[in-house]
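Structure request: Peptidase A1 domain-containing protein, Symbiodinium pilosum.
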Amino acid sequence: MDSVNMGAQKWEARLGAKGEDPVIIDDYMNAQYYGEIEVGTPGQKEMVVFDTGSANLWVPNTKPFLSSHNIYSHDKSSTYKKNGTTFAIQYGSGPVSGVFSADDVTIGDLKLKDYTFAEVDKTSGLGLGYRLGKFDGILGLGWDSISVGHVTTPMKALVASGQLPEPIFAFYLGNNQPGELLFGGVDPKHYTGDFSFVPLSSETYWQINMDAVKLGGDAVSSVKSAIVDSGTSLLAGPKDDVAKIAAKLGAKSILGKEYVVDCSAKLPDLTFTLGGKDYTLSQPDIILQQSGSQCILGLTGIDVPAPRGPLWILGDVFMRKFYVQFDWGQKRLGFAKAAQGASVLMV
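Returned structure:
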């Protein structure tokens, strides 16, 4: 029955949104969100993470051992053009490398002709998470200054192509159900109330100034900068700040990575103040999944070094609660309350 409902939701999402064709964002256990693109002629399907925390498109041309990834073969494309320049990028989880190539790329009903992207043959830096993962590649939606090789970013290319009604894109992340990424507008189905806008403080990541972080009524971080990052599953803050928050919540660290708390504990709200407005995550929002009597918190410590850091990363845990409009044209972020269906807790 669930699969029938899911199919219906996907088609409703496809048929909505002011005649533009949204990209369906599949959700794997609230930990990976990814959608389909096509590369080459005829189009070769690739499932990519649409990542606002990086700015390049890469897809694999080889398959890791015992994995089921879709791979791109330039020999099968009539529109492929060789480039050959080396590509290498470092993610939080490790390095990825290959070469640049050019080909046609289709995203929803949008087409980029002769677009420079990377075809990758080394993904070992992403570890088991990639080998077992549901996504094949990554499509970065960040700004030019963080583009490896200074190639035109996907969003800059889309804006320049003249295909977007407005130079914006917007994310709705489903809660254990499909979501939607819309290029060129916002989808009123997926948010309630009005948007509150915050200007970007840096055109690198989608970075803004942050007024405060509070747990209950108490300030728990002096850091004044945040990025909204669709490619990070959790909320992430400086390790010392996160350790203090975890201690106040009575949470224990597992292998120094994730925090667990007793499911029967009553947790105070975690509030981020952006542009003078409070964005509050309550207990159901910050619990990622349940394992017996232990609940995993959607919170981790990451120290981003200067000059980009220190900063808080408002990842998918935040973006499930708030519908985010990424306004490329006016260099700002817009936040509204996401119109969520019933929340589903993974056990």
